[in-house]
Design brief:
mainly beta, single chain, about 80 residues, elongated, OB fold (Dihydrolipoamide Acetyltransferase, E2P), two-stranded antiparallel sheet
């Protein structure tokens, strides 16, 4: 179980690359690097690729919603869900 949980992603800090207000989606660049083992056994930090078309979720309750302007360079947190 421990090894399975070690590779389970739940949240990822990212930087907004672009925002589509019509689709309410962003393309984001992960703000962290991951360690990858080289063939010689040494570790290398590697950038993660751009994540396109991430849905933007606004806080909503009681028939109201809070929305904010989104622009390139904004920080965000991408949440991963399982089925």
């Amino acid at each position: 179980i421990k090894s399975a949980l070690a590779v389970l992603w739940t949240n990822l800090p990212c930087i907004v690359d672009s925002y589509d207000p019509d689709k309410q989606t962003v393309s984001v660049t992960p703000a962290i690097q991951i360690p990858v083992m080289r063939e010689d056994g040494s570790m290398e930090l590697v950038d993660l690729p751009l994540i396109p078309d991430v849905p933007v979720c606004w806080p909503k309750a009681g028939g109201f919603a809070l929305t904010f302007p989104v622009k390139r360079g904004d920080e965000c947190l991408v949440h991963f869900s399982s089925r």
